[in-house]
Amino acid sequence: MDIAIQDKAEKGLVNLITPIIVSVFAVYLTIGMTLGVLPGYIKNDLKQGSLVVGIVIGLQSLATLVTRAYAGKLTDTRGAKTSNHLGIVLVLLSGVVYLIALWLSPYAGLATSLFLLARMVHGVSESLAVTGALTWGIGLVGAQKSGKVMTWNGIAMYAGIAVGAPLAIWMKGALGAGCVFAMIFLLSTVSWLATVKLPALPVDAAHIRTPFYKVVGLIAGQGLGLAFSAIGFACISSFIFLLFTQQRWGAPSMAFMAFGAAYIVTRILFSSFPDRFGGYAVALVSLVIEAAGQLLIASASSAAMAIAGCSLTGIGFSLIFPALGVLAIKKVAPQMRGTALGAYAAFFDLSLGLAGPAAGIIAGWYGYAAIYVFGGCCCLLAMTVLLRNKMFMPKDK
User: In CATH, what number is assigned to the domain containing residue 29?
Assistant: First the structure.
């Protein structure tokens, strides 16, 4: 009887979060596809430098960062469903701006400016859609299942990036860049339809809200650890295409796929580790693996070595978000969960937003391989932050 009840509960959990996972996957597929096309297009077609590539790529994350507080507030006061669906509408709008920028590509300066605008809209859409999706999923299945919700949302996010980037590279070669950006319309529709029938969460309008800056302070230890760990991912997503081009290793599709596959398989096989061994322990081991992956890319003398480095980075980075995220949301009341998730994810956004331009400057001075030395050093900084935080907060696991 107990087994039957447990199976029924698990089936109910799957039925509730699967539409949200599909919706998040579709949103991140649009992000992955733009990452697969934009660096090469801006560098080769618009003839812009590495710093401009880094700014264009990083601007999306900065836009996501500065709207996290608003996304958290909207999610907590107007509902997760409202926040999520508004974000999806903005994904579609970003697709319109991308296509206009592409149409105006003979005017390189104007096209670059429009790509910057598209990245900002895309960043705001990510903030609203994902904060809403995470809060919605946790609210539907209960806080005790928050680790699973974060784990499967993370799988959807990075699967979207891992699939989207090589898919876009293929589509650009076979059908042109216009088809890549046009796909954003289709994927936005899929994302909307996946969740439109899910019930909305009740909103406690009477709850006295903790100011956003205080929430940031509460979860700063976990957030900084996440921020430094995310730089390795940012280095791959922004510059692995250009590293492969410089070294004449062919298309980097396998590098994106290796990162994504390693990330997803690790999440599936070891998703219980944060609960079993503690968030800090899992994060520290993960950071050692990620640092090794970054240094392997930096020293790579062949495409196979670089792909192996991307795989190690994916394995290492995979469990950091849920391991530290579960600790972060325990620090706030349930009515503030959307704000806490927004604050926690803001550290990730800040990392990606700053890593792109910083890596672009490093590439200009020392070459693309040096970017991954930078990524490895940031993993060591993340370990230092987490060890210090653990020392002063011994009750956190």
Answer: 1.20.1250.20
